[in-house]
Amino acid sequence: MSNRFEGKVALVTGGSRGIGAAICRRLAAEGADVVLTYGGSKDKAEAVAEEIRAMGRKSEALHCDASERGATAALIADVAARYGQLDVLVNNAGVYPLTSLAKCSDEVWDQMLAINLTAVFEGLRAAYRVMSPGGSIVTIGSVAGDAAQMPGVGVYSSSKAGVELITRAAGREFGRKGIRANVVQPGPIDTDMNPADGQNADLQKMMVPLGRYGEAEEVAAAVAFLASEDASYINGTTLKACGGMTA
Ligand code: NDP
């Protein structure tokens, strides 16, 4: 493993489980100090931070409910002030309400938009204010942001289409300050959100040319690439980690 993030400070939202936890481990393995946030999974988040400290990096798990207006922005300002820098932001926290449009309640819609879209908007804006040139932002979208591939996914798709576009817009607007912003769109990844033996899993496997779910670590590798200087001329774009699902 290379040391692409030596001396860098990274913040990963929703780092307690799944893809977020894998991103935290990957950035730390490549040298970053990693702050991660959690909503409900305090013990798991603290275990990830402990693992990272055992690698010899700084790490802390902070509670930050992404559905709470202002919480993500305040968290980013606080971390940047305490660490004296913020080099990498990964907007990862997300929820996946599987519901038909016709049956989606106002509460589900509002909660999903607050976490999947508004918190990302806050994260982008707050990161712009604290990042120095060379900073990098990666947002976790989804191939569902390109198309509502299955019944019940459309409500979620709308939030993931939104985060893709707002992140690419950030790449356009922040580029002048030397800050890059890109999107990773995973296909089906085996996590609590979308277990490889769960509802619609066989259908999803059939839709992927590689014929399988991806692992969280495979998404983390794509995120680490975009966050690193290896991607220094890659800005305002989308990298799909989906096994060819959208080919
Ligand atoms: P998981 O359900 O395994 O993990 C979700 C993470 O988001 C957890 O760390 C959770 O923290 C955090 N989170 C959820 N709600 C909140 C909240 N209100 N405040 C703070 N944190 C919150 O999902 P994945 O790891 O699979 O998903 C990670 C990202 O990847 C999401 O944006 C998802 O949409 C996206 N994605 C996932 C795919 C998949 O197939 N798995 C495919 C495409 C995209 P806590 O438990 O502490 O609340």
Shape by Cα distribution: globular
Using the CA coordinates, give the radius of gyration. Answer: 17 Å
The helicity comes to: 40-55%
Order of strands, widest sheet: 3-2-1-4-5-6-7
Q: Can you identify the CATH superfamily?
A: NAD(P)-binding Rossmann-like Domain
Structural class assignment: alpha/beta
Which whole number gives the mean pLDDT? 98
Give the ordered list of helices and strands: EHEHEHEHEHEHHE
Contiguous runs where pLDDT drops below 50 for at least 5 residues: none
Beta-strand share of residues = 5-15%
Described by strand count, sense and barrel closure, the largest sheet is: 7 strands, parallel
> Number of helical segments?
7
User: Which CATH class?
Assistant: Alpha Beta
Q: Can you tell me the CATH architecture?
A: 3-Layer(aba) Sandwich
Count of discrete structural domains: 1
> Distance between termini?
30 Å
**CATH fold node name:** Rossmann fold
Key terms:
alpha/beta; 247 residues; binds NADPH dihydro-nicotinamide-adenine-dinucleotide phosphate; Rossmann fold
Walkthrough of the structure:
With 247 residues, this protein is of the alpha/beta class. The protein has seven helices and seven strands. It has helices at residues 18-29, 42-54, 71-83, 106-130, 154-174, 201-207, 216-227; strands at 9-12, 33-38, 59-63, 88-91, 136-140, 180-186, 238-241. Helix 1 (18-29) runs parallel beside helix 2 (42-54), helix 3 (71-83) packs parallel to helix 4 (106-130) and helix 4 runs parallel beside helix 5 (154-174). The protein is globular, with a radius of gyration of 17 Å. The model has no long low-confidence stretch (mean pLDDT 98). The site of NADPH dihydro-nicotinamide-adenine-dinucleotide phosphate has 31 residues, from helix 1 and strand 2.
